[in-house]
Amino acid sequence: MKLHNLKPAEGSTKSRKRIGRGTGSGRGGTSTRGHKGAKSRSGYKSKLGFEGGQMPLQRRIPKFGFNNKNKVYNKPINLDVLQDLASQYNLEVITFDSLVEHGLVGKKDVVKVLGRGELTAKVSVSAHSFSASAVEAIEKVGGTVNKI
Fold first, then answer.
1. Which letter does DSSP use for residue 46 in this model?
2. What are the phi and psi torsion angles at 72 (to 5°)?
3. Cα separations (Å) of 111 from 53, 91, 99, 134?
4. Helix ranges, 1-112 (H)
5. Model-level pTM?
6. Quick check: 15 pLDDT over 90?
């Protein structure tokens, strides 16, 4: 064994530098926090989006328009999507729950069936609302329409 072969025992050294352990450690005094200011003090926590007193980005950007919180946004489902669903999973009854189960809509969505595409399967469809062309196409192939 020679001096150049020596190394510390397994697990005896730590890679993290210990701060605030006296001036002799090289990381004492201000403990790497610098001098004065909020960041040097204990308990410091900045707000989300805080830019050091500069006007934050979310307040600098102009706001315009209007978002109506009471408006109901429908999730459109077309006839071709219903046809794919019916043929792929051999469904005769398509309910709101089956649409949620197959990932087409969310649990809180309001579904409106629209008339794009062609429907050949005889299915019973349950949804919140239907367009006139969708009702006509569903009933033409012998299916039924149920409003929730």
1. P
2. -100, 120
3. 46, 18, 9, 13
4. 57-60, 79-89, 96-101
5. 0.58
6. no
Amino acid letter at 48? L
Beta pairing, strands 129-130 & 110-114: parallel
Q: Which residues make beta-bridge pairs with 48?
A: none
- Six token digits for residue 40: 């040097």
pLDDT confidence of residue 77: 96
pLDDT per residue over 128-146, tens digit each?
999 999 999 999 999 999 9
The two structure tokens encoding residue 132: 């006139």
Nearest CA among 129, 128, 124, 139 for reference residue 93:
124
User: Scanning the structure block, which residue is given the tokens 């349950």?
Assistant: 126
Confidence (pLDDT) at 52: 87
Q: Which amino acid belongs to residue 98?
A: S
Cβ contacts of 73 within 8 Å, gap of 6 or more: 110
- Tokens 């072969």 correspond to 5
